[in-house]
Design brief:
Length: 313
């Protein structure tokens, strides 16, 4: 297969390009600035918030993996809409016009909105997102399904849960830094579904190997869910340390989270929810529809994660 990957120099894109090439696929990497991949292979520079790739770039492509997007940034709402929503639709239209067989959109469970309860959610258990990131992903999903349903180009929407792996940024990186600085052991509250980078990339490669026909929306997550305390314990164990001491009462965790929100301009309880909220998702649909099976657990890669974050201090 000839596979085009947007966001090719990003956290997921680099690994995907590497794995696709290793499996014998021809890879066409795109990135905003045209940076190199591992090994020095250049990527084609395209600012998808402003334009679609030239027809010559899309010629002969079988599968497009659209990974590019704004995620862990405090950007204006208009920027999320420009790239995550309108840029996605513009790219999909160009792909359909060029005869691409399958368009794979890497969305997010955040497109499903905030969980109304602690129950495990399936693909149809959605609320309208209230944040700019989740809303832009939801708008892109709706537009793709509305415009291309029943057409010649199949559309696959993949909604990953929180992705972990070497070089990951965001909340996991922040937690790892806090553990190294002596963060007390958090209380056991909340759990989140997650997915290893290796498992997510393997799912995308399964799609490349046998692109499905029609329209599909799949949640991608592992079998296990983790609390902040679980992650804390795994990271300490990876550093060769024993169980930390939980000397900070729960009420002070709430106060500290509130102060962080106030200082950063976020609306409480944003930080508390990230630390102790419950977001559980089901991967039953993708397990039913494909041969993919998640194999990695957080404890399998905790030492690697800590080593990588330690090197980047």
């Amino acid at each position: 297969m000839k596979c085009l990957v947007t966001g090719a120099t990003g956290f997921i894109g680099r690994r995907l390009c590497q794995q696709l090439a290793a499996q014998g696929h021809t890879v066409v990497p795109l990135s905003k600035r045209g940076g190199p991949l591992e090994g020095g292979q250049p990527s084609t520079a395209v600012d998808l918030a402003r334009s679609a790739p030239d027809e010559s770039v899309l010629r002969g492509v079988d599968v497009v993996f659209h990974l590019a997007g704004i995620a862990h940034q405090r950007a204006p709402e208009s920027d999320y809409a420009a790239l995550n929503f309108r840029g996605t639709l513009r790219l999909a239209r160009a792909c359909a016009a060029s005869g691409v067989n399958c368009f794979v959109f890497l969305s997010s469970v955040k497109a499903m909105g905030s969980p109304p309860s602690q129950a495990v959610r399936g693909e149809s258990d959605c609320e309208l997102p209230t944040d700019a990131y989740g809303l832009s992903k939801w708008q892109a999903e709706r537009a793709l399904l509305d415009e291309f349903a029943g057409g010649g180009m199949s559309v696959v929407i993949v909604r990953p849960a929180l992705v972990y792996g070497a070089q990951v940024k965001g909340n996991l990186q922040s937690l790892a830094k806090a553990v190294r600085r002596g963060l007390p052991r958090p209380p056991r509250r909340g759990r989140r579904s997650m997915i290893a980078l290796a498992d997510l990339v393997e799912l995308l490669c399964v799609i490349a190997q046998r692109p499905p026909v029609g329209e599909h929306t799949w949640i991608a997550c592992g079998a296990d869910a983790y609390s902040t305390r679980d992650i804390y314990d795994l990271l300490r164990r990876a550093r060769g340390k024993g169980r930390g001491v939980g000397w900070l009462p729960h009420g002070l965790w709430r106060l500290a989270a509130w102060l962080i929100d106030r200082g950063s301009g976020r609306s409480p309880p944003a930080t508390y929810d990230r630390l102790f909220g419950t977001e559980l998702y089901s991967n039953a649909a993708v397990l039913r529809d494909t041969a993919w099976r998640p194999l990695t657990r957080l404890e399998d890669v905790a030492v690697q994660l800590d080593a990588t974050w330690n090197e980047r201090r």
